[in-house]
């Protein structure tokens, strides 16, 4: 059962949002106090802290200078280049001011967009903060995207300037960025006037476009060490645009405000992440994703913490690197993803126990369903609570989570626990529009207004914001998460998969997640993807693609067959024969987005012999090829 304190805390946030959020807003600096906590005169658009002016960069950096100028703000570690560098709050202030001056010199001002297409280097971090300092709107595009994806985002955001680097590094190999930027600028109808380039000296073939391209180091040197006054912006002024991962189709430009976001993140550091000023947080995501925006860059700084930024693989030089950093920097809070933990699971477990992890209090995981065996494995190895967070790019911070900073509650593996304060979550029956009782599946909806920090609209497209997110029910506007969930008698929520992943087997609706969870209970399963494919008799049947933990055990066809049979038995015993996959295929890799999410829609299309559609978000094309080969002639 959700603790009593937690329950009351949540209820108050829903019943009295004005009081609740007025109190939370005291956590940040307002240059001009707001007149109104919430303006909800134009549903479903919510405007938080109307009339107030503030600045995200001021709250993240300047505000701390009086008390913690010499404290570490950013620790940068690259196992790719061997560079390790620490920046105090004062250092960060200096770098961000210089870069803000460079941007201003290039004519970038309030409301202008700046695209940041960069590897995980400190300059990317500075660029985000420099933008918000001067009221410019950043849009970080994950560095793994190719020219075409970048061009689409350029045309949607129409940036005045683009910040990039000559190259990124992955597994010791240099990956040029600049040719992709040049190509994207050619493809785009609205290319930026200027490209500011950090030359890391990683690409010997680097070329410059005269007049357009500017050298970062030279530009910084030319401005010296100026102080750039912060631009006080309205609370509702957009801080950034961030495109969703594109797992289900065309990415949407999520627009985030300034004041609501700052308040929501600062509060979350106390209530959810339990991070205190002076402590260190290590978020292993990439700044190109929402978790990186919120919990590598903004939230730790807003809370006066030290944030660790890591360029490199989790397995290089070995599978212990993250935990080595935890020891070295006395990290209290690690935030990662189930996908990353499943990668570590294939490594030698000794890497998890070889360092002194006594500083660590929590491991938070988000982005994908966290299966029970993985949660149990990592929690037992690290000996700290593992907290599953459910959220979306759209919300910017968790929708479902345990909130140990409000009240510690027992963890149930496989469940991201309870609705977070501010979110009026309902599981809804799609047909009746009514909330479903416990133990019944429903679409996870949020009754608006969405709390502070959530998207204010889709960039440049208010109509799309309304039609995409608020058309689940005809009778009333409810935000649809497009995820399918269930709540148990004790109030714990479980995410069962995306609404378009629900499989209809002879009239029974099954979430892909439920079946995957059952398959994962087999000891030799590292990862699994379940999709529904067309079946003349039953409508749809599930099929499963399994990555074994130890492929060495599947020595011959007989061993593989026995394994497949055991997997089917596991599903039978967990869910019953109705959920049993028609086939189990063993593969070595699953198709994922560049943010590590399973691309079920592409697997399903390939399995049904259809065109897999837009593959720009696909990380490794060979994974989809394996699916194609695995099913060949079997269906
Ligand atoms: P697009 O919306 O463009 O298709 P996307 O939904 O993959 O892309 P994100 O916003 O990065 O983009 O991902 C949010 C989704 O990730 C959620 O809607 C949910 O499906 C999944 N997710 C996130 N965290 C969890 C979690 N803890 N448990 C289960 N699923 C999760
Ligand atoms: Mg989504």
**Overall outline:** globular
Distance between the termini: 45 Å
Strand content: 15-25%
CATH-level-2 architecture of the domain at 89-231: 3-Layer(aba) Sandwich
Name the bound molecules: adenosine-5'-triphosphate, magnesium ion
- Major sheet size, sense and barrel closure: 7 strands, mixed
Radius of gyration: 24 Å
Q: How helical, in percent, are the residues?
A: 25-40%
Low-confidence stretches: none
CATH class of the domain at 89-231: Alpha Beta
CATH overall fold name of the domain at 89-231: Rossmann fold
In a few lines, what is going on in this structure?
The chain has 635 residues and is α/β, with parallel strands linked by helices. Among the domains are: 89-231, Rossmann fold (3-Layer(aba) Sandwich), CATH 3.40.50; 502-632, GMP Synthetase, Chain A, domain 3.
């Amino acid at each position: 059962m959700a603790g009593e304190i937690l329950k009351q805390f949540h209820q108050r946030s829903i019943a009295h949002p004005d009081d609740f959020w007025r109190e939370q807003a005291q956590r940040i600096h307002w240059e001009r106090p707001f007149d109104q906590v919430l303006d909800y005169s134009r549903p479903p658009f919510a405007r938080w802290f109307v009339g107030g002016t503030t600045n995200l960069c001021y709250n993240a950096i300047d505000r701390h200078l009086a008390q913690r100028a010499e404290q570490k703000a950013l620790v940068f570690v690259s196992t790719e280049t061997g560079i390790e560098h620490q920046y105090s709050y004062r250092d960060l202030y200096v770098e961000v001011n210089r870069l803000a001056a460079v941007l201003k010199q290039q004519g970038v001002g309030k409301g202008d967009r700046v695209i940041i297409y960069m590897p995980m280097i400190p300059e990317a971090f500075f660029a985000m903060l420099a933008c918000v300092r001067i009221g410019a709107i950043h849009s970080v595009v994950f560095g793994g995207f190719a020219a075409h994806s970048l061009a689409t985002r350029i045309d949607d955001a129409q940036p005045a300037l683009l910040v990039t680097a000559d190259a990124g590094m992955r597994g010791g190999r240099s990956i040029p960025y600049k040719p992709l930027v040049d190509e994207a600028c050619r493809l785009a109808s609205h290319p930026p006037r200027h490209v500011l380039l950090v030359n890391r000296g990683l690409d010997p073939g680097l070329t410059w476009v005269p007049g357009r391209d500017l050298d970062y180091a030279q530009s910084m040197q030319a401005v010296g060490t100026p102080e750039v006054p912060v631009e006080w912006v309205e609370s509702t002024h957009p801080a950034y645009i961030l495109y969703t991962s594109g797992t289900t189709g065309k990415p949407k430009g999520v627009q985030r405000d300034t004041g609501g976001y700052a308040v929501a993140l600062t509060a979350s550091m106390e209530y959810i992440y339990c991070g205190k000023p002076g402590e260190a947080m290590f978020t292993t995501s990439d700044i190109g994703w929402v978790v990186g925006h919120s919990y590598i860059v903004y939230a730790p700084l807003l809370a006066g913490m030290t944030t660790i930024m890591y360029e490199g693989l989790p397995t290089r030089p070995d599978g212990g690197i993250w935990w080595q950093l935890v020891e070295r920097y006395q990290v209290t809070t690690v935030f990662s993803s189930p996908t990353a933990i499943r990668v570590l699971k294939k490594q030698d477990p000794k890497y998890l126990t070889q360092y002194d992890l006594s500083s660590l209090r929590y491991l938070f995981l988000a982005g994908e369903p966290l299966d029970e065996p993985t949660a149990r494995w990592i929690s037992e190895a690290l000996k700290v609570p593992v907290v599953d967070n459910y959220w979306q790019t759209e919300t910017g911070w968790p929708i479902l989570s345990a909130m140990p900073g409000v009240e510690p509650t027992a963890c149930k593996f496989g469940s991201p626990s309870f609705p977070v304060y501010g979110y009026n979550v309902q599981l809804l029956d799609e047909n009746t529009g009514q909330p479903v009782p416990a133990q019944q599946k429903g679409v996870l909806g949020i009754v608006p207004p969405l709390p502070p920090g959530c998207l204010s609209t889709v960039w440049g497209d208010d109509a799309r914001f309304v039609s995409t997110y608020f058309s689940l029910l005809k009778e009333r506007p409810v935000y649809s998460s497009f995820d399918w969930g269930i709540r148990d008698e004790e109030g714990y929520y479980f995410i069962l998969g995306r609404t378009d992943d629900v499989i209809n087997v002879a009239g029974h609706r099954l979430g892909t997640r439920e079946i995957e969870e059952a398959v994962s209970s087999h000891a030799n399963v590292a990862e699994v993807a379940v999709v529904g494919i067309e079946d003349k008799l039953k409508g749809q049947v599930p099929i499963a693609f399994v990555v074994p933990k130890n492929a060495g055990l599947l020595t011959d066809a007989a061993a593989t067959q026995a394994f497949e049979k055991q997997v089917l038995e596991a599903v039978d015993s967990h869910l019953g024969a109705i959920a049993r996959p028609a086939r189990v295929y063993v593969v070595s890799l699953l198709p994922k987005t560049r943010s590590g999410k399973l691309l079920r829609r592409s697997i399903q299309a390939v399995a049904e012999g259809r065109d897999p559609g837009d593959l720009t978000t696909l990380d490794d094309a060979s994974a989809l090829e394996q699916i194609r080969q695995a099913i060949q002639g079997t269906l």
